[in-house]
Amino acid sequence: MDELTDTYKTIAKPSEDILFKEKKSKFFGYAFPVKNEDEIKTIIETLKKKHPSANHVCYAWQMGIDQLNYRANDDGEPNNSAGMPIYGQIQSFEVTNVLVAVARVFGGTKLGVGGLISAYKMAAKLALENSKIVEKIVQKQFKLNFEYAQMDVVMRVIKQKNLLIISQKMEMDCELIIAVRKRDAEQIKTLFVGIYGVEIN
Question: What angle do CA 93, 117, 101 make, to 5 degrees?
Answer without folding.
Answer: 55
